[in-house]
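Please go through the sequence line and token line underneath and see whether the fold suits the sequence. See right below:
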Amino acid sequence: MSENLALNASAGQNRTRAQNEIRTNLKRKQRTLHFRSAAIKALKRNIGSIRKKSEE
């Protein structure tokens, strides 16, 4: 009986650990996506200003 309880407890810990890993991985991916889109926007802005300068 006590072995069963111990197995259930470790299974629950493994589940929460896995959920936490998934959550942190998602946060990391969202952060990199955010930075990537911000970098792309900045590059587009720079390209636009360079084009304007070259047209002048």
Notes: Residues 1-55 form one domain. The two ends are 83 Å apart (CA to CA). The chain is about 95% helix and 0% strand. The chain has a mean pLDDT of 88.
